[in-house]
């Protein structure tokens, strides 16, 4: 038997206590530690280098229109060029060359800045995405049962993209734009007069105010579009995951109509989004054109008065056109960041979800010596108005097997979930070797328990990957040994690629019995001192059940085992059997004792025998007719 192995739990992510109605300032505040990480000097150096390149790029950007102005003045007034210029540059051709060089340097510094900062931005995205992923695994089972997978993955995808957008926009577009605004205003004050600067300031304020109002108007449209997108994606994934069910009931048309209704809503909201964007862009263009017109008129008057040159006219036009780009960026930055904040709201909401079950600050690892299990007066309800367990008490001595039987809804599977601490009892205690499981770490608790569930869902990977999931550092030889122990080794070697064969989405390429054997193999590989079999054979036909039962009997040998049984024939050798009904233990004892009591268990046993006899009769009749059938009758 493979020795029990312990692994270190994943580190809990740093909490990001952000309100679900997040503001830009709040978002930037909580993103800053990822942009300026304390433990990464290399990334800090990149931020500093990117800032230096940013300033150099903007200084060169401001110098570009001046070279254009000087070249124009030399062409229109050959004797009127600035005498302060070095003689080597005194000529329109030389100025044109300088103009081209400056533009090249501007492009070089800008691209170098982006390339240098890319590692910072993507490191921030990776770290946050990883924290969200880890946080999702920390959240309780109730959260995941109430979530739709398609919608959740879409929310996380948009949130990750939004973080990337905010980091890049704020550092690579927002900051450079502010620097450029300041430099251009300085140029207008220095080279012209206050009227030009005041006109530009008014135009910028009007432009940004209009952008703010129009963008806020578009936010509601964006929210509706996101909701319809999430809804459509959820329906698509839900339908595809249930592909076989759709086919069974010939519901392709109904599913297509259901999906199309969601896409129709998304279409309407998308059209509204594009129309509102057109309105926004038109208004921005109009405001900028008015500002450009005013400063051009002022310059024309200056030329007529002799205070300005034709080169000044060209300089103003070039400077304004150059201003339009950061202005347009600023509008885009505001729009994109506001939209990113909307996209990130739900992800922040998820990050603010606290796990329902958390370790106590002083929780210690579970120490398993004998592996005895005890339930003391356990009460539990998923909802307060519907109690599931009502004062359940029992004990499983070390190395013994306890079976729990009862009708559906009696609370059998709830007992296994409580033992795993997926939920917390409202009253009572659960002890392992005398240790209250609420006082130990969840990781050490789950590390000590093995589970073979009724419905085994496998990862869409290889057979070896799914078996090795029981103990990740197991060797190939140990994996194969576990497969042989679970009686699936021969099957694996018979399929193409063997252990490297893909099992498909949720393991759908394997039969029910094959999936169960894989689940048994990985539990064997984990080698836990405690074992839970949660109706591990109820979904299988009688013949497959018998084969699986042989493997299970070998697994439980020498282990403390809790069996949640559907078929009573599988638990006749249990050391004790509990009959659970409506959340209470109504009978308990060994198989023979319960039959002799002529109570609930006796009635269930007779019903099971009738079912088995009916199945056997149908199978024999089919064999006599030369055909094979699989018949399952619910007991």
Spans of at least 5 consecutive residues whose pLDDT stays below 50 are 1-21, 80-89, 628-635
The number of E-state strands comes to 10
What is the CATH architecture term of the largest domain? Up-down Bundle
Order the strands across the largest sheet as they lie in space: 6-7-8-3-9-10
What is the averaged pLDDT score? 79
Keywords, separated by commas or semicolons:
Rossmann fold, disordered N terminus, 4-stranded antiparallel sheet, 3 domains, 10 strands, 6-stranded mixed sheet, alpha/beta, 635 residues, elongated, single chain, ABC transporter transmembrane region fold
Give a brief rundown of this model:
Helix content is 62%, strand content 10%. By secondary structure, it is α/β, with parallel strands linked by helices.
Structure overview:
The protein has 635 residues and is an alpha/beta fold. It folds into 3 domains: 24-351, ABC transporter transmembrane region fold (Up-down Bundle), CATH 1.20.1560.10; 373-448 and 528-624, 3-Layer(aba) Sandwich (Rossmann fold); 458-514, no CATH class. Helices cover 62% and strands 10% of the residues. The chain has helices at residues 24-35, 41-76, 92-138, 141-146, 149-191, 194-241, 243-248, 252-305, 310-351, 412-419, 442-447, 463-468, 476-485, 489-494, 512-526, 542-556, 591-597, 600-624, and strands at 373-383, 386-396, 401-405, 427-432, 435-436, 449-452, 530-534, 560-564, 576-581, 584-589. A 6-stranded mixed sheet has the order 6-7-8-3-9-10, with helices on both faces. The protein has a 4-stranded antiparallel sheet with strand order 2-1-4-5, covered by helices on one side. A hairpin with a 2-residue loop joins strand 1 and strand 2. The longest helix is centred in the middle third of the chain and has 54 residues, at 252-305. The chain is elongated, with a radius of gyration of 36 Å. 34% of the residues are buried. Residues 1-21, 80-89 and 628-635 have low confidence and may be disordered.
């Amino acid at each position: 038997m493979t020795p029990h192995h312990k692994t270190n739990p994943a580190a809990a992510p740093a909490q990001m206590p952000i309100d679900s109605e997040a503001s830009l300032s709040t978002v930037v505040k909580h993103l800053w530690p990822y942009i300026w990480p304390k433990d990464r000097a290399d990334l800090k150096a990149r931020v500093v280098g990117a800032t230096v390149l940013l300033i150099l790029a903007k200084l060169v950007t401001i110098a570009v229109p001046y070279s254009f102005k000087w070249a124009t003045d030399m062409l229109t007034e050959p004797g009127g060029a600035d005498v302060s210029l070095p003689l080597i540059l005194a000529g329109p051709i030389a100025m044109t060359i300088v103009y081209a060089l400056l533009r090249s340097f501007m492009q070089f510094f800008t691209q170098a800045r982006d390339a240098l900062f890319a590692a910072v931005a993507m490191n921030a995205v990776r770290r946050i995405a990883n924290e969200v992923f880890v946080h999702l695994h920390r959240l309780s089972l109730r959260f995941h049962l109430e979530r739709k997978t398609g919608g959740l993955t879409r929310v996380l995808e948009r949130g990750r993209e939004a973080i990337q957008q905010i980091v890049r926009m704020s550092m690579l577009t927002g900051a450079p734009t502010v620097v450029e605004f300041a430099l251009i205003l300085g140029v207008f004050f220095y080279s012209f007069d206050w009227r030009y600067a005041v006109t530009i300031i008014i135009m910028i304020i009007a432009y940004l105010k209009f952008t703010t109002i129009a963008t806020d108007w578009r936010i509601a449209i964006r929210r509706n579009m996101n909701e319809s997108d999430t809804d459509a994606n959820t329906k698509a994934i839900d339908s595809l995951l249930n592909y076989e069910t759709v086919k069974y009931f010939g519901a392709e048309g109904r599913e297509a109509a259901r999906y199309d209704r969601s896409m129709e809503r998304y279409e309407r909201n998308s059209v509204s989004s594009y129309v509102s964007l057109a309105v926004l862009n038109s208004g921005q263009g109009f405001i900028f054109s008015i500002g450009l017109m005013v400063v051009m008129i002022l310059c024309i008057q200056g030329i007529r008065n002799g205070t300005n040159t034709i080169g000044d006219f060209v300089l103003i036009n070039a400077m304004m056109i150059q201003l339009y780009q950061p202005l347009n960026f600023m509008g885009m930055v505001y729009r994109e960041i506001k939209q990113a904040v909307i996209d990130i709201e739900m992800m922040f909401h998820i990050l603010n979800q606290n796990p329902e079950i958390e370790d106590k600050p002083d929780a210690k690892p579970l120490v398993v010596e004998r592996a005895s299990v005890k339930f003391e007066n356990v009460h539990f309800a998923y909802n307060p108005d519907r109690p599931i367990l009502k004062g359940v008490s029992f004990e499983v001595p070390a190395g013994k097997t306890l079976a729990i039987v009862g009708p559906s809804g009696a609370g059998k599977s709830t007992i296994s979930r409580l033992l795993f601490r997926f939920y917390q009892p409202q009253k009572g205690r659960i002890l392992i070797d005398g240790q209250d499981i609420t006082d130990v770490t969840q990781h050490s608790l789950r590390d000590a328990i093995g589970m073979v569930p009724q419905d085994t869902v496998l990862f869409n990977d290889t057979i070896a990957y799914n078996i090795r999931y029981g103990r990740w550092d197991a060797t190939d030889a140990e994996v194969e040994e576990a497969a042989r122990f679970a009686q699936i080794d021969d099957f694996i070697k018979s399929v193409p690629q063997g252990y490297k064969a893909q099992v498909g989405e949720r393991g759908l390429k394997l039969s029910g019995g094959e999936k169960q054997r894989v689940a048994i193999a990985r539990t064997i590989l984990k080698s836990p001192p405690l074992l839970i079999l949660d109706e591990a054979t109820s979904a299988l036909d009688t013949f497959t059940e018998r084969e699986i039962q042989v493997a299970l009997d070998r697994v439980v040998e020498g282990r403390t085992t809790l069996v949640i049984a559907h078929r009573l024939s599988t638990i006749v050798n249990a050391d004790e059997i509990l009959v659970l009904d409506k959340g209470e233990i109504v009978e308990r004892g060994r198989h023979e004792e319960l039959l002799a009591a002529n109570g609930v268990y006796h009635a269930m046993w007779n019903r099971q025998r009738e079912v088995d006899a009916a199945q056997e009769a149908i199978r024999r009749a089919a064999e006599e007719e030369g055909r094979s059938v699989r018949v399952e009758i619910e007991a």
